[in-house]
Write a structure and sequence with these properties.
Radius of gyration: 22 Å
Strand order of the largest sheet: 5-4-3-6-7-10
Helix content: 25-40%
Structural class: alpha/beta
Order of helices and strands: HEHEEHEEHHEHEEEHEH
Length: 324
């Protein structure tokens, strides 16, 4: 995503947002055309067609007992996705996002992901709101529909200051809990963060503070976790002596990057990312990884198409009704 220049901020913002919208409309929206399903195939409230029950895949609470009794074969009833839903996104713009060594900074990728979600949902009439983590503060932006509201929200994200003084670790778990408590109406909830938090004692496999709030959120809503990654967070370069600073705490260390240290770092980073994947799956949240060195539009489209294809294949079982 193109970042606005230091002068002419208003015009720069509008130019960047128009580029983002055109990218979404031309590439992403074109790939995801079809019935109103949202970015992920999720449940609704209106009953649809019945189909044969698939053990291990279907929820027994959706059993269609009338058709089951007539055909003597277990059937479930699909649900039609709701319209005019509320989508709420939690955007992490904490100091760790002011970093990037590839095509963009992580904060730019966060805003691009929010924009993609926003333009897709508001084009079909859904309301879109946001909670934004900025340092030790959390900003709330009311859910509204329409293109002007989406532009206003994204402009506010672009205006968030960079280089804030360290204020301690990001309170991701607290904000997820706030979102779950304040927004009870069912819909899509998206958490966009780098999820760099480790468990107690620095153990990558220990439970994170955001796991329980995320699990409660996923129990009521459809949840998508977007993990933003920079390649330098996965592997360090062979450059010798460097200074490493934690943007969340301000702690600095001088380290000589020997091959042994680089291997240990890469192993620890891989363990941390794998632990994130397992934790999010345990919470019941969908998981999308976006990288600053990859085409984020392509990754979103491929992820969404893959999930829709899975949902379609699960529904391709012959329907047997009474009298057939």
């Amino acid at each position: 995503m193109e970042r606005p220049g230091g002068t002419g901020g208003g015009q720069g913002h509008e130019h960047a947002l128009r580029r983002l919208e055109l990218t979404v409309v031309r590439r992403l929206d074109g790939l995801l055309q079809g019935r109103h399903q949202g970015l992920l195939p999720g449940p609704g409230s209106e009953p649809g067609d019945s189909r044969m029950y698939v053990p291990g895949e279907d929820d027994v609470r959706r059993m269609d007992w009338a058709v089951t009794a007539r055909t003597q074969v277990p059937h479930v009833r699909d649900l039609i996705a709701d319209r005019e839903l509320e989508t709420w996104v939690l955007a992490d713009l904490s100091p760790s996002m002011d970093f990037g060594t590839a095509d963009m900074e992580k904060r730019d990728l966060v805003i691009a992901a929010v924009g993609a979600l926003g333009f897709l949902t508001t084009r079909i009439g859904d309301r879109f709101g946001a909670y934004v983590i900025q340092g030790d503060q959390v900003h709330h932006m009311s859910a509204r529909t329409g293109r002007p509201a989406m532009y206003a929200l994204l402009s506010a994200l672009l205006d968030t200051p960079r280089g804030l003084p360290p204020g301690g670790p990001t309170r991701l778990g607290e904000v997820i809990q706030t979102l779950a408590a304040a927004r009870r109406r069912r819909g899509l909830r998206v958490v966009v963060s780098d999820f760099l938090e480790l468990g107690p004692g620095g153990e990558p496999d220990a439970e994170r503070t955001w796991e329980r709030p995320m699990r409660r959120l996923a129990a009521r809503h459809q949840v998508l976790a977007v993990e933003v990654v920079d390649p330098r967070e996965l592997e360090l370069p062979d450059v010798g002596l460097i200074n490493l600073t934690d943007p969340e705490t301000g702690h600095t260390r001088h380290i000589h990057l020997t091959p042994k240290i680089r291997r240990a770092y890469a192993d620890a980073a891989a363990r941390q990312r794998e632990a994130n994947r397992v934790a999010l799956r345990r919470c019941g949240a969908a998981h999308l990884v976006l990288r600053t060195d990859r085409d984020w539009v392509y990754d979103i489209a491929q992820y969404t198409l893959r999930h829709r294809r899975t949902a379609h294949l699960a529904a391709r079982h012959p329907t047997r009704r009474a009298g057939t």
